[in-house]
Amino acid sequence: MTGAVERLLPSGPDTDMVTAVKEAARGLSRELGAGRVASAIRSG
Amino acid sequence: MIQSVERAARILEVLGSGGSRLGVTELSTNLGLAKATVYGLLRALELHGLVEQDLETGKYRLGPALLQLGNAYLDNHELRARSMRWAESLAGQTQEGVRVGVLAGPNVLVVHHVFRPDNSVQILEVGAAIPWHACALGKAIAAHVEPDRLKTLLQAQLPRLTGNTITVKRSLDAATGDSRSAPSA
């Protein structure tokens, strides 16, 4: 996420914002194959 | 390495690094090449639309073919393609701008940018190259590269862009370490 530090982090990390970023990153990672590779290693 | 290709690439880099147009003499001096060599390379680049000459001043600037190549780079970029809907969703959820970037040399190259959804005037940052050490995105990416790559990044020159830019290598190493240890996706 991008923006003025004073607006994004007025009093440190925002839990909801961190969660939203993590969920987006997790979803994107899965689409890029992260989960599938891990599954293949476990089942291989 | 093919010398002429390498020299042509350097011409494009020099023309792309500043805002002003440059003449043959200026390029020759800048690159340490003979004027005839620079002129020949410029003619070839011009033929392919990679540079263009200003008819009034005779000086050269980057050409329109580079915009087409840049768009082709973006159109074929898998991370950009796959991140679009996630970035859009994240921007909507948080009401903040979102950038997606990749590490390219010592810079973070922004490959996708969603504006903060508040109808304010904003500048599209796709194509921007930001020194990795001068942005949170760069530090987050650097935190997860291989140790040798991180070492190379830390050993390079780290220019100060603002009063808040961390340029002390020990502090940067610590900052990337914090990102590594934080829970992540």
- The sequence of SSEs of chain B as H and E is HHHEEHHEEEHHH
Work out the number of β strands of chain B.
Answer: 5
Count the beta strands of chain A.
0
Query: Uncertain regions of chain A: pLDDT < 50 for 5+ in a row?
Result: none
Low-confidence stretches of chain B: none
Describe the structure.
The complex is a heterodimer of chains A (44) and B (185). Chain A has 44 residues and is mainly alpha-helical. Chain A has helices spanning 5-8, 15-31, 34-43. Helix content of chain B is 50%, strand content 13%. The longest helix of chain B is centred in the middle third of the chain and has 17 residues, at 78-94. The interface between A and B is medium-sized, with 19 and 21 residues.
Task: Provide a compact summary of the structure.
Chain A contains 3 helices and no strands. Chain A is mainly alpha-helical. Chain B has helices at 3-17, 24-31, 35-47, 65-75, 78-94, 136-142, 147-155, 169-181; strands spanning 51-53, 60-62, 98-104, 107-114, 129-131.
How is the topology of this model organized?
The complex is a heterodimer of chains A (44) and B (185).
Chain A: H1 5-8, H2 15-31, H3 34-43
Chain B: H1 3-17, H2 24-31, H3 35-47, E1 51-53, E2 60-62, H4 65-75, H5 78-94, E3 98-104, E4 107-114, E5 129-131, H6 136-142, H7 147-155, H8 169-181
Antiparallel strand pairs in B: 1-2, 3-4, 4-5
Helix pairs in contact in B: 1-3, 2-3
